[in-house]
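User: Show me a protein chain along with its predicted structure.
Assistant: Here is one chain, sequence first, then C-alpha coordinates.
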Amino acid sequence: MDGVGKRYGDQWALRDVTLDLDAGVVGLLGPNGAGKSTLMGILTTFTAPTEGTVTVDGVDVSEDPTAVRSRLGYLPQEFGVYPDLTAREFLEYLGALRGLDRATARERAVDLLSVVNLADAADRRLDTFSGGMTQRVGIAQALLADPDVLVVDEPTVGLDPTERARCRNVLADLARDRVVVLSTHIVSDVEATASDVAVLVDGRLRTHTDPETLVESVDGRVWECVVDDRGAIDPAHLVTSTARRGDGRRVRVVAGDPPTDDATPVDPTLEDAYLALLDGRDPNGGGRP
Protein backbone atom coordinates (compact mmCIF):
# COMPACT_ATOMS: atom_id res chain seq x y z
CA MET A 1 0.00 0.00 0.00
CA ASP A 2 1.52 3.29 -1.11
CA GLY A 3 -0.06 6.62 -0.10
CA VAL A 4 -3.56 5.12 0.03
CA GLY A 5 -6.48 7.42 0.79
CA LYS A 6 -10.26 7.29 0.51
CA ARG A 7 -12.60 10.26 0.45
CA TYR A 8 -16.38 10.23 0.82
CA GLY A 9 -17.70 13.62 -0.22
CA ASP A 10 -15.67 16.19 1.67
CA GLN A 11 -14.52 13.74 4.36
CA TRP A 12 -11.39 11.65 4.22
CA ALA A 13 -11.96 8.23 5.82
CA LEU A 14 -8.37 7.23 5.07
CA ARG A 15 -5.33 9.31 4.21
CA ASP A 16 -1.75 8.63 3.16
CA VAL A 17 -1.49 5.01 4.38
CA THR A 18 1.71 3.26 3.32
CA LEU A 19 2.31 -0.35 4.38
CA ASP A 20 4.55 -3.14 3.11
CA LEU A 21 3.45 -6.58 4.34
CA ASP A 22 5.15 -9.97 4.19
CA ALA A 23 4.04 -13.39 5.41
CA GLY A 24 2.74 -13.32 8.97
CA VAL A 25 -0.14 -11.85 10.93
CA VAL A 26 -0.52 -8.07 10.93
CA GLY A 27 -2.87 -6.91 13.66
CA LEU A 28 -4.93 -3.95 12.44
CA LEU A 29 -5.95 -1.90 15.47
CA GLY A 30 -7.75 1.39 15.92
CA PRO A 31 -10.77 2.96 17.61
CA ASN A 32 -14.19 3.09 15.98
CA GLY A 33 -14.12 5.37 12.95
CA ALA A 34 -10.35 5.04 12.52
CA GLY A 35 -10.66 3.75 8.94
CA LYS A 36 -10.09 0.01 9.44
CA SER A 37 -13.22 -1.04 7.53
CA THR A 38 -12.36 1.31 4.67
CA LEU A 39 -8.83 -0.08 4.48
CA MET A 40 -10.13 -3.65 4.43
CA GLY A 41 -12.60 -2.71 1.70
CA ILE A 42 -9.72 -1.42 -0.41
CA LEU A 43 -7.56 -4.48 0.30
CA THR A 44 -10.36 -6.84 -0.74
CA THR A 45 -11.17 -4.82 -3.92
CA PHE A 46 -14.70 -3.91 -2.77
CA THR A 47 -13.71 -0.24 -2.55
CA ALA A 48 -11.51 1.75 -4.92
CA PRO A 49 -9.02 4.14 -3.30
CA THR A 50 -9.33 7.85 -4.06
CA GLU A 51 -5.56 8.16 -4.12
CA GLY A 52 -2.56 5.88 -3.85
CA THR A 53 -2.03 2.32 -5.01
CA VAL A 54 -2.35 -1.20 -3.61
CA THR A 55 -0.37 -3.98 -5.26
CA VAL A 56 -0.02 -7.70 -4.60
CA ASP A 57 3.33 -8.88 -5.96
CA GLY A 58 3.27 -6.00 -8.42
CA VAL A 59 -0.36 -6.47 -9.56
CA ASP A 60 -2.40 -3.30 -9.02
CA VAL A 61 -5.67 -3.96 -7.16
CA SER A 62 -7.50 -1.17 -9.01
CA GLU A 63 -6.18 -1.92 -12.49
CA ASP A 64 -6.68 -5.70 -12.38
CA PRO A 65 -9.04 -6.58 -9.49
CA THR A 66 -9.99 -9.96 -10.97
CA ALA A 67 -6.40 -11.19 -10.91
CA VAL A 68 -5.95 -9.99 -7.35
CA ARG A 69 -9.25 -11.46 -6.11
CA SER A 70 -8.07 -14.94 -7.05
CA ARG A 71 -5.25 -14.47 -4.52
CA LEU A 72 -7.43 -13.06 -1.73
CA GLY A 73 -9.43 -14.74 1.02
CA TYR A 74 -11.90 -12.77 3.14
CA LEU A 75 -13.86 -13.49 6.31
CA PRO A 76 -16.22 -10.59 7.08
CA GLN A 77 -17.47 -9.92 10.58
CA GLU A 78 -21.00 -10.97 9.60
CA PHE A 79 -20.58 -14.38 8.02
CA GLY A 80 -23.66 -16.36 6.98
CA VAL A 81 -24.02 -20.09 6.31
CA TYR A 82 -26.70 -22.39 4.90
CA PRO A 83 -27.87 -24.11 8.11
CA ASP A 84 -29.33 -27.20 6.40
CA LEU A 85 -25.99 -28.13 4.82
CA THR A 86 -23.19 -30.02 6.48
CA ALA A 87 -19.81 -28.34 6.78
CA ARG A 88 -18.47 -30.53 3.95
CA GLU A 89 -21.44 -29.77 1.66
CA PHE A 90 -21.19 -26.05 2.37
CA LEU A 91 -17.51 -25.87 1.42
CA GLU A 92 -18.03 -28.02 -1.68
CA TYR A 93 -20.87 -25.74 -2.76
CA LEU A 94 -18.80 -22.57 -2.29
CA GLY A 95 -15.90 -24.22 -4.08
CA ALA A 96 -18.15 -24.88 -7.08
CA LEU A 97 -19.31 -21.24 -7.05
CA ARG A 98 -15.67 -20.19 -7.20
CA GLY A 99 -14.96 -22.32 -10.23
CA LEU A 100 -13.47 -25.44 -8.71
CA ASP A 101 -14.41 -28.74 -10.36
CA ARG A 102 -16.30 -31.25 -8.21
CA ALA A 103 -13.31 -33.45 -7.37
CA THR A 104 -11.11 -30.48 -6.44
CA ALA A 105 -13.87 -28.88 -4.36
CA ARG A 106 -14.39 -32.14 -2.48
CA GLU A 107 -10.67 -32.53 -1.84
CA ARG A 108 -10.27 -28.92 -0.69
CA ALA A 109 -13.25 -29.24 1.67
CA VAL A 110 -11.72 -32.29 3.36
CA ASP A 111 -8.29 -30.69 3.63
CA LEU A 112 -9.56 -27.37 4.99
CA LEU A 113 -11.84 -28.91 7.60
CA SER A 114 -8.75 -30.66 8.89
CA VAL A 115 -6.79 -27.40 8.87
CA VAL A 116 -9.40 -25.67 11.04
CA ASN A 117 -9.76 -28.71 13.33
CA LEU A 118 -13.27 -29.65 12.20
CA ALA A 119 -12.60 -32.96 10.46
CA ASP A 120 -14.67 -34.84 13.03
CA ALA A 121 -17.63 -32.51 12.43
CA ALA A 122 -17.48 -32.55 8.61
CA ASP A 123 -20.84 -34.27 8.22
CA ARG A 124 -22.72 -32.38 10.90
CA ARG A 125 -25.31 -29.80 9.84
CA LEU A 126 -24.17 -26.24 10.30
CA ASP A 127 -27.18 -25.35 12.45
CA THR A 128 -25.70 -27.61 15.15
CA PHE A 129 -22.37 -25.73 15.21
CA SER A 130 -21.28 -23.39 18.00
CA GLY A 131 -20.28 -19.82 17.19
CA GLY A 132 -16.60 -20.70 17.26
CA MET A 133 -17.07 -23.69 14.99
CA THR A 134 -18.99 -21.51 12.52
CA GLN A 135 -16.16 -18.97 12.54
CA ARG A 136 -13.69 -21.73 11.73
CA VAL A 137 -15.88 -22.79 8.81
CA GLY A 138 -15.68 -19.13 7.75
CA ILE A 139 -11.90 -19.27 7.81
CA ALA A 140 -12.03 -22.49 5.78
CA GLN A 141 -14.21 -20.92 3.07
CA ALA A 142 -11.81 -17.98 2.85
CA LEU A 143 -9.02 -20.47 2.12
CA LEU A 144 -10.75 -22.37 -0.70
CA ALA A 145 -8.61 -20.74 -3.37
CA ASP A 146 -5.42 -21.12 -1.26
CA PRO A 147 -4.97 -17.30 -1.14
CA ASP A 148 -1.73 -15.44 -0.64
CA VAL A 149 -3.54 -12.77 1.41
CA LEU A 150 -6.20 -13.56 4.02
CA VAL A 151 -8.24 -10.71 5.51
CA VAL A 152 -10.32 -11.45 8.63
CA ASP A 153 -12.58 -8.98 10.41
CA GLU A 154 -13.24 -9.47 14.14
CA PRO A 155 -13.09 -13.30 13.92
CA THR A 156 -13.27 -13.91 17.69
CA VAL A 157 -15.98 -11.47 18.78
CA GLY A 158 -18.59 -13.23 20.90
CA LEU A 159 -16.61 -16.45 21.27
CA ASP A 160 -15.84 -18.12 24.58
CA PRO A 161 -12.18 -18.25 25.67
CA THR A 162 -11.63 -21.79 24.38
CA GLU A 163 -13.00 -21.04 20.90
CA ARG A 164 -11.08 -17.76 20.77
CA ALA A 165 -7.85 -19.63 21.45
CA ARG A 166 -8.66 -22.18 18.72
CA CYS A 167 -9.33 -19.47 16.14
CA ARG A 168 -6.14 -17.64 17.07
CA ASN A 169 -4.11 -20.82 16.74
CA VAL A 170 -5.57 -21.49 13.28
CA LEU A 171 -4.71 -17.97 12.09
CA ALA A 172 -1.18 -18.18 13.48
CA ASP A 173 -0.60 -21.49 11.67
CA LEU A 174 -1.97 -20.11 8.39
CA ALA A 175 0.34 -17.10 8.52
CA ARG A 176 3.48 -19.17 8.08
CA ASP A 177 3.30 -18.83 4.30
CA ARG A 178 0.80 -16.02 3.64
CA VAL A 179 -0.16 -12.52 4.73
CA VAL A 180 -2.98 -12.52 7.30
CA VAL A 181 -4.59 -9.16 8.05
CA LEU A 182 -6.42 -9.40 11.38
CA SER A 183 -8.71 -6.46 12.11
CA THR A 184 -9.96 -6.52 15.69
CA HIS A 185 -10.74 -4.53 18.82
CA ILE A 186 -9.41 -7.34 21.01
CA VAL A 187 -5.79 -6.41 21.66
CA SER A 188 -5.02 -9.74 23.35
CA ASP A 189 -5.79 -11.52 20.05
CA VAL A 190 -3.16 -9.39 18.34
CA GLU A 191 -0.69 -9.95 21.17
CA ALA A 192 -1.17 -13.72 20.87
CA THR A 193 -0.83 -14.02 17.08
CA ALA A 194 0.63 -10.97 15.34
CA SER A 195 4.14 -10.51 14.03
CA ASP A 196 3.29 -6.88 13.13
CA VAL A 197 0.92 -4.25 14.47
CA ALA A 198 -0.56 -1.40 12.44
CA VAL A 199 -2.55 1.25 14.31
CA LEU A 200 -4.96 3.58 12.52
CA VAL A 201 -6.18 6.77 14.17
CA ASP A 202 -8.46 9.28 12.41
CA GLY A 203 -7.79 7.64 9.05
CA ARG A 204 -4.02 7.86 9.30
CA LEU A 205 -1.42 5.26 10.12
CA ARG A 206 -0.13 6.11 13.60
CA THR A 207 2.44 3.32 13.73
CA HIS A 208 3.48 0.08 12.01
CA THR A 209 5.91 -1.98 14.03
CA ASP A 210 6.35 -5.31 15.76
CA PRO A 211 4.49 -5.91 19.05
CA GLU A 212 7.71 -6.06 21.08
CA THR A 213 8.81 -2.58 19.96
CA LEU A 214 5.38 -1.11 20.73
CA VAL A 215 5.41 -2.70 24.20
CA GLU A 216 8.91 -1.32 24.84
CA SER A 217 7.54 2.20 24.29
CA VAL A 218 5.95 2.05 27.77
CA ASP A 219 8.62 -0.03 29.49
CA GLY A 220 9.23 1.31 33.00
CA ARG A 221 6.03 3.38 32.93
CA VAL A 222 3.37 0.83 33.89
CA TRP A 223 2.29 0.55 37.53
CA GLU A 224 -0.20 -1.33 39.65
CA CYS A 225 -1.72 -0.07 42.86
CA VAL A 226 -4.69 -0.88 45.09
CA VAL A 227 -7.23 1.82 45.93
CA ASP A 228 -10.34 1.57 48.07
CA ASP A 229 -13.78 2.38 46.70
CA ARG A 230 -13.36 6.04 47.63
CA GLY A 231 -9.86 6.28 46.26
CA ALA A 232 -9.08 7.88 42.94
CA ILE A 233 -6.16 8.10 40.56
CA ASP A 234 -4.96 11.48 39.35
CA PRO A 235 -6.80 12.09 36.05
CA ALA A 236 -3.49 13.17 34.52
CA HIS A 237 -2.53 9.48 34.54
CA LEU A 238 -3.83 6.89 32.08
CA VAL A 239 -5.70 3.97 33.67
CA THR A 240 -5.57 0.95 31.36
CA SER A 241 -7.51 -1.53 33.51
CA THR A 242 -9.14 -2.07 36.89
CA ALA A 243 -10.09 -5.26 38.70
CA ARG A 244 -11.95 -5.64 41.97
CA ARG A 245 -10.11 -7.64 44.63
CA GLY A 246 -10.79 -8.40 48.28
CA ASP A 247 -8.53 -5.53 49.37
CA GLY A 248 -10.05 -2.97 46.98
CA ARG A 249 -9.67 -2.10 43.32
CA ARG A 250 -6.43 -3.11 41.62
CA VAL A 251 -5.64 -0.40 39.10
CA ARG A 252 -3.16 -0.53 36.22
CA VAL A 253 -1.72 2.86 35.26
CA VAL A 254 0.66 4.24 32.63
CA ALA A 255 2.61 7.15 34.10
CA GLY A 256 6.15 8.49 34.23
CA ASP A 257 6.18 8.36 38.04
CA PRO A 258 4.40 6.11 40.56
CA PRO A 259 0.74 7.21 40.72
CA THR A 260 0.51 6.36 44.45
CA ASP A 261 3.00 5.78 47.26
CA ASP A 262 2.41 2.03 47.23
CA ALA A 263 2.39 1.59 43.43
CA THR A 264 4.65 -1.17 42.11
CA PRO A 265 6.17 -1.39 38.61
CA VAL A 266 4.86 -4.21 36.41
CA ASP A 267 5.73 -5.60 33.00
CA PRO A 268 3.89 -3.74 30.22
CA THR A 269 1.44 -5.44 27.86
CA LEU A 270 0.49 -4.63 24.30
CA GLU A 271 -2.80 -3.22 25.56
CA ASP A 272 -0.95 -0.80 27.85
CA ALA A 273 1.17 0.38 24.93
CA TYR A 274 -1.76 0.59 22.51
CA LEU A 275 -3.93 2.63 24.90
CA ALA A 276 -0.99 4.92 25.68
CA LEU A 277 -0.45 5.47 21.96
CA LEU A 278 -4.12 6.38 21.45
CA ASP A 279 -4.19 8.59 24.52
CA GLY A 280 -1.14 10.63 23.59
CA ARG A 281 -0.38 11.86 27.10
CA ASP A 282 2.92 13.17 28.32
CA PRO A 283 4.65 10.12 29.87
CA ASN A 284 5.47 12.21 32.96
CA GLY A 285 1.80 12.75 33.69
CA GLY A 286 1.51 16.25 32.30
CA GLY A 287 -1.66 15.61 30.32
CA ARG A 288 -2.16 15.49 26.59
CA PRO A 289 0.15 17.64 24.48
